[in-house]
Write a structure and sequence with these properties.
Its EC number is 3.7.1.22. There is one protein chain. By secondary structure, this protein is of the alpha/beta class. It is built from 24 helices and 23 strands.
């Protein structure tokens, strides 16, 4: 057997570089690169190995470990899970900084390879710098934090362990059903140890998406339900995009007269102009989608995990409604007592379409959907139009960005009040034009995520919409975007605090407290100059005084060669009242506040509506 003597770290990166995929007939590296912040736990071993292969596997330097993992996650999502990236940190805080990002990838079913440094396998120098010591378990390290947020976890304590661990790693990262983060904790002494690896370990391998076809029995049951339905409805999730099934979905809905609502991850699966696309569904849904979803007798849920925002905490669909869960993952397909249809979205829709040939939903139901859509678009236009109030609403800022945007643009967001407003109001121009991290709703994802989206497709204009709270949590990758020459347009909406949670606090009867800066404990309120801060990181930055100035600044930003940051003050109290649905946020049973008591009464009444 032919062998090659390499350190474990050298073998790992060489194996990563050998993995390929084919997209639109072009063979590309499966791993587009490695994000790295070096420390004593990875610089000597993995750092040396990455330097030696930098012409085949690029290394990118970031400014924050969590942020670089967010960029890798966004890259994978924008690449529809067809390509991915690895991230490496030292042991200790560098590693634990990435745990939050691992959770983001885990919740959103996205491939991410985490390569944190670890303690010495030999243990002779214990305790090493940054080592976590468990008084009762000598095998524990800080990297055990990754176990609950990894689809596969391994700690490499011998160099030859890389071979089976790597095989399992790639299998998980490329499997449509198991896909999620993988953590290979790399003991720092083992990174540098040599082994005679079989040459076959570095053989080029091409990975293509697996398209699982539906079981005949499950398919027949699903077809029978859809044929018998008087008011069928489709819920589209992110799995449609991962399967590249958006055209199949549009044709399916059109052929059978099926209205559809989109989850946060599924938004942009249907063309915004499609007459049966009723837009967002659930807690942050449109009035059109939610009205028909409430009446539906059969729901075909395609590629969605049916989280509480989609189902209105299990109150949106009527108790007699039957759900068909079309999903590659059995865990998701069977939720809510659904009839599972376990298959790839594209393959499953094709077989459903063939089996339903000539069948259409009742014309009155399709017509009702089209009328509801028209009514909602009028309401949305009113909310996004410029107003006369002193400070614009989030919706009015969204309207300005929408009017400036082009069909190929991508809007990126993650947390706060903006996801709800964007879900209802944004009209994507093309598939993938709406990039929302709302599975984990991770503050700080926005700017780093925008960078990953831009890396996935530099030809598309990427606009990041972010609140002042998220900006303050994580903004360092503005500097990384400048360093890499990857231009973003970032719109910062400053409502001087956590406006979304302040509104929720008030809605549950609480007094405004500790959310808006003015309501938090303070001696002096900070006057934060976001434009000056962004400029100090290398961006072209300005603050605008209203929607008209915002539109002018956006127009100018399109011609800029580097990242632009535009800051605008917004009203923290205004949100779009139309649309939406109840969300289960528990209210105290006992309180001295009359407002809380009233909110509890409303909460108890709402609970009785749960199916």
């Amino acid at each position: 057997m032919s062998t090659i003597r390499l350190t474990m770290a050298q073998a790992l990166v060489r194996a990563l570089a050998a993995q390929k995929t084919v997209i639109d007939g072009e063979t590309l590296p499966l791993f587009a690169g490695v994000w790295a912040i070096f420390g004593h736990g990875n610089v000597a071993g993995l750092g040396e190995a990455l330097h030696g292969i930098r012409d085949r596997l690029p290394t990118y330097r970031a400014h924050n470990e969590q942020a670089m993992a967010h960029s890798a996650i966004a890259f994978a999502k924008a690449s529809r899970r067809r390509r991915m990236m690895a991230v490496t940190s030292s042991i200790g805080p560098g590693a634990t900084n990435m745990v939050t990002a691992a959770a983001v990838a885990h919740v959103n079913r996205l491939p991410l390879l985490l390569l944190p440094g670890d303690v010495f396998a030999g243990r002779r120098p214990d305790p090493v710098l940054q080592q976590i010591e468990d008084f009762g378990d000598g095998t524990i390290s800080a990297n055990d934090c990754f176990k609950p947020v990894s689809r596969y976890f391994d700690r490499l304590t011998r160099p030859e362990q890389l071979i089976p661990a790597f095989e399992r790693t790639i299998a998980v990262l490329t499997d449509p059903a198991e896909c999620g983060p993988v953590t290979l904790a790399l003991c720092q002494d083992v990174q540098t140890e040599a082994y005679d690896y079989p040459a076959s370990f570095f053989r080029e391998r091409i990975w293509r998406p697996r398209r699982t076809r539906p079981d005949e029995g499950e398919l027949a049951e699903a077809v029978a339900l859809l044929k018998a339905a008087k008011k069928p409805f489709v819920v589209t999730g992110g799995g449609v995009l991962f399967s590249e099934a958006e055209s199949a979905l549009a044709q399916f809905c059109e052929a059978h007269g099926l209205p559809a609502g989109e989850t946060q991850a599924g938004k942009s699966t249907l063309p915004a102009a499609h007459k049966l696309n009723l837009g967002a569904i659930g807690v942050t849904g449109t009035g059109a989608a939610n009205a028909l979803a409430e009446e539906a007798d059969v729901v075909l849920a395609v590629g969605t995990r049916l989280q509480d925002f989609t189902t209105g905490s299990r109150t949106l669909f009527n108790p007699d409604c039957r759900i068909i869960g079309l999903n590659v993952q059995p865990f998701d397909a069977g939720k809510h007592g659904a009839l599972p249809l376990i298959c790839d979205a594209k393959a499953g829709l094709a077989e459903l379409d063939a089996a339903l040939a000539g069948h259409r939903a009742p014309q009155a139901w399709s017509a009702k959907a089209e009328a509801a859509r028209a009514d909602w678009l009028k309401a949305a236009e009113a909310h996004t139009a410029p107003g006369n109030q002193p400070l614009p609403s989030d919706a009015q800022v969204i309207g300005a960005v929408q009017r400036w945007s082009e069909p190929s643009d991508v809007v990126v967001c993650a947390a706060g009040g903006l996801p709800g407003e964007l879900h209802k109001l944004w009209q994507p121009g093309a598939a993938g034009g709406y990039h929302m991290e709302y599975g984990y709703s991770c503050m700080g994802y926005e700017i780093a995520g925008g960078l990953g989206v831009k890396m996935a497709d530099p030809s598309r204009e990427v606009v990041v919409m972010v609140g002042d709270g998220s900006y303050l949590m994580m903004n360092s990758e503005i500097a990384t975007s400048i360093m890499l020459g990857l231009k973003l347009t970032i719109v910062v909406l400053d409502n001087r605090g956590f406006g979304c949670i302040n509104r929720l606090q008030n809605a549950t009867g609480g007094a405004s407290f500790n959310n808006l800066l003015a309501d938090a404990r303070h001696e002096t309120l900070p006057e934060i100059d976001f434009a000056a801060h962004a400029a100090s990181l290398g961006a072209l930055a300005q603050k605008v005084a209203g929607v008209a100035e915002l539109e002018a600044a956006l127009k100018a930003s399109r011609s800029h060669a580097r990242t632009s940051v535009i800051v605008i003050d917004t009203d923290p109290l205004i949100s779009t009242g139309d649309g939406g649905h109840w969300w289960d946020v528990a209210v105290p049973e006992v309180s001295a506040r009359a407002e809380v008591k009233a909110a509890r009464e409303r909460y108890d009444a709402a609970l009785k509506q749960r199916a």
